[in-house]
Amino acid sequence: MIPRRRFLQAAATTAVAVPLSATPAHAAPAHAMAVRAREPEGTITDLGPASVAGPLGNAEIVNGVLYVGSRGLSPNVVGAYDLAKDSVTTHFEIPTGIGIWAMCRVGTDVYAATHSRSDLYRIDTVAGTVTKVAEYPDHFVWTMAASPDGKVYLGTSEPGRVREYDPATGTSRDLGEASPGEAYVRSIQADATHVYAGVGANAHLIAIDRATGERRELLPPELADRDWVASMSMSGTHLACGMNSLAELLVMDRADPSRFKVVKATAPGEKYIVSVLVHDGHVYFAGRPTGTLYRYSIAGDELEVLGVPYFEAATHRILAHEGRVYGVQDSAVFVHDPATGQIEYRNLVQRGLRAAPEEPMSVHSDGERVYVGGKSGADIHDLATGKVTRLGIPGEPKTMLTVRGTTYLGVYTQAALYAHRAGESEARLLARAGNQQDRPRDLAYDARTGLIVMPTQPEPGHVNGALSLYSPRTGKLETHRPAVERQTVYSVVTRRGTAYLGTLIQEGLGLPPVTATARLAAWDLAAGELLWQHEPVPGARAITSLALGRAGAVLYGMASTGEVFAFDLRRRQVTGRLQVGAKGGELFVTGEVAYCTDGDKIYKLDLRSFTARTLVEGLAGQWFGGEPKLALDPSRRALYGVRGRDLVRVAISGRP
After folding, report:
1. How far apart are CA 321 and CA 26, in angstroms?
2. Closest to 218 measured CA to CA, from 176, 179, 160
3. pLDDT score of 364 more than 80
4. Residue range 556-567: mean pLDDT, rounded
5. Mind giving me the DSSP string for 32-90?
6. Cβ atoms of residues 250 and 259 within 8 Å
């Protein structure tokens, strides 16, 4: 195995497989910094691709070639990695969808399914052709498996549905919701007579008769309170399922489902079993957040820890070929040899896998550089030189903040808080929110208490978001759950020991909201208690951003509806509301003006007259998940956003 530092350095080299140094047309050199002060407001400077990566979602092996599917690229690709040649020899473009989560094989054909939109493609590995064979109205295709007679079964969301595709006839059949009312089918297998569907956010294991459609629950009653049956593999005798969020492996006798074993992953802090393979009398499975690879002997009822191929990485698929076990991770594959016990790590971008601009997730400027968060790390753009480096992180930076030379990153999954200082080769893990939290939503710093405030969304299927308070001085993290009952805190700004919170009505994914309108709330950071709540925009799903006016007496916010509101903190009432954008995004106040975005336009607001005008348009920012972001330069003379998938600098005056 390779030490963690070398892993992160390998990840950091991923992005440099394609040219990243900006040309003079893309990034201003150091001597241009003074010129920028004279740029007319609204001037756009293109800084090149915002975040370049080669993230993977699934894979299949055919005739000694590992076919790996990308996610978040445009277009996505399936790369053919020749195991004997140790190189990626061919790419097959998948022109629709934002990623490939599901793959399976039928003979020498590889099937790849996309999400957002849900299309099914067949790759003829002999002829080297790609054909779109079906499309579905479902939001995501999460999982896919082939039956012994060559039919393809797909698990989708939302709701959690099972579909069948017959390659012989080119027709599809809807087998309906696996477990009515549940949002996700996240794992699937099929034999000659049944389809087995793993369901969440409330766990079910459903056997569907392929001929009659009859359904039968196989999940033992003892496990009925689990969240997900999230991964699955099958042999002639056993069905193995990975369950969340207690990191349990269910191994079931197919002939007699009442004969089963629950195996608990042993690494400290393990929560998810993300991929499973039944092979040669064993179950190989991978956990998160640790990234540990395990092997369970079915006959011997013994669990082994084989190692950690890459610290905290997600293993999307485990496959076997010619006596070796292969694990597919972001931009890489590990190879385990059961005969020697060795694990080899192979960066596929270094072996020819295409890296390309991805859909970015976050953007932040510390004044000298811009961080753009994406899958498995962030690209750091040096504003003086145009140089771009990759900061490898085992997760997705969703939000960032710089305080006294340290940049803090809120990272999905596990609601983790990392820290990075310019020039360091890797980020440091500071803490995790725990409390069944998953997705950081914002970061703020309060000077009075010295606390970093990080609101988070709970794990899929769980209720109540949380508010985590981290002290850089003591290293202590304190998490309050709930912060706002039955909602997630989405945005936060602080002043003099009070955190002002904007909420999202969605709790964990897969749960229908139980509240109808997003709230504005105040939280006492020292006392650790909620002070008051208000609903500023009727029917708004989220308050996507908050900013304080110059005197601190007025709080400005942007709602998911695209409305901007002004809230008088003394009177605790909305004093103005203005329809600005098509949807909610980031909002910043500088002096008597504010700037906000809906992803396509950046707007300038005169806060005295409470009017808005379009500053720039046509950005068409391709943000991951459709959540538009924006960053304010500390000089308050520039904003950073994306146009398409390029990072852009927009000059601002900060004056009415």
Report:
1. 45
2. 179
3. yes
4. 98
5. GHHHHTTSPTT-EEEEEES-EE--EEEEEEETTEEEEEEBS-SSEEEEEEETTTTEEEE
6. no
* Among 288, 416, 291, CA closest to 7: 291
Q: List, in order, residues 6 or more apart from 423 with CB less than 8 Å away.
A: none
More confident residue, 25 or 235: 235
Q: Are 93 and 77 in contact (CB under 8 A)?
A: yes
Q: Residue 118: which of 89, 147, 94 has the closest Cα?
A: 94
- Name the token pair of 397: 């930076």
Whether 147 and 192 have beta carbons less than 8 Å apart is answered as: yes
Question: What is the DSSP secondary structure assignment for residue 655, as one 8-state letter?
Answer: -
Residues 432, 417 contacting (CB under 8 angstroms)? yes
Q: How far apart are CA 646 and CA 359, in angstroms?
A: 10
Omega before 158 within 30 of 0, i.e. cis: yes
| Residue 624: both structure tokens together | 């991951």
328-337 pLDDT tens trace: 998 999 999 9
Q: Which of 10-24, 126-140, 500-514, 628-642 has the lowest mean pLDDT?
A: 10-24
354-389 as b/e: b if 16+ CB within 10 A = bbbbbbbbbbbbbeebbbbbbbbbbbbbbbeebebb
Q: Is the pLDDT of residue 546 over 50?
A: yes
Percent of the chain with pLDDT strictly greater than 90: 90
> How far is the first Cα of the chain from the last one, in angstroms, to the nearest whole number?
58
Tokens found for residue 247: 């990191």
Distances (CA, A) of 286 to 70, 310, 626: 20, 11, 30
The pLDDT, as a whole number, for residue 460 is 87
Q: What is the 3-state secondary structure (H, E, C) of 558-618?
A: EECCCEEEEEECCCCEEEEEEECCCCCCCEEEECCEEEEECCCCEEEEECCCCEEEEEECC
Mean predicted confidence (pLDDT) in 248-262: 97
The number of C-alpha atoms within 13 Å of 406 and in the hemisphere containing its C-beta is 13
Number of C-beta neighbours around residue 132 at 10 A? 13
Kind of pairing between the strands at 416-421 and 428-432:
antiparallel
Rounded to an integer, what distance in angstroms lies between the CA atom of residue 360 and that of residue 25? 22
**Alpha carbon 150 to chain centroid, angstroms:** 32
The residue among 634, 644, 649, 625 whose CA lies nearest residue 490 is: 625
**Cα–Cα dist 595/604, whole Å:** 5
Structure tokens at 265: 């992953």
Which residues, other chains included, contact 221 with Cβ-Cβ below 8 Å and sequence gap of 6+? none
Q: Which residues contact 192 (CB under 8 A, 6 or more apart)?
A: 147, 148, 149
Please give the structure tokens belonging to residue 609: 């007259």
How far is CA 194 from its chain centroid?
32
What would you report as the CA-atom Rg of the chain, rounded to the nearest whole angstrom? 25
> Residue 330: its pLDDT value, please?
86
CA dist 596 and 208 (Å) reads: 49
The Cα 243–Cα 544 span in angstroms is 32
CA 247-251-253 angle, to 5 degrees, is: 165
What is the number of other CB atoms lying within 10 angstroms of the CB of residue 390?
24
Q: Is the peptide bond before 137 cis (omega within 30 degrees of 0)?
A: no
Please, what's the largest Cα pairwise distance for the chain? 76
How many Å apart are CA 351 and CA 348, to the nearest integer?
A: 5
How confident is residue 37, by pLDDT bands cut at 50, 70 and 90?
A: low
Which pLDDT tens digit goes with each residue over 298-319?
999 999 999 999 988 899 999 9
Average pLDDT over residues 85-102: 96
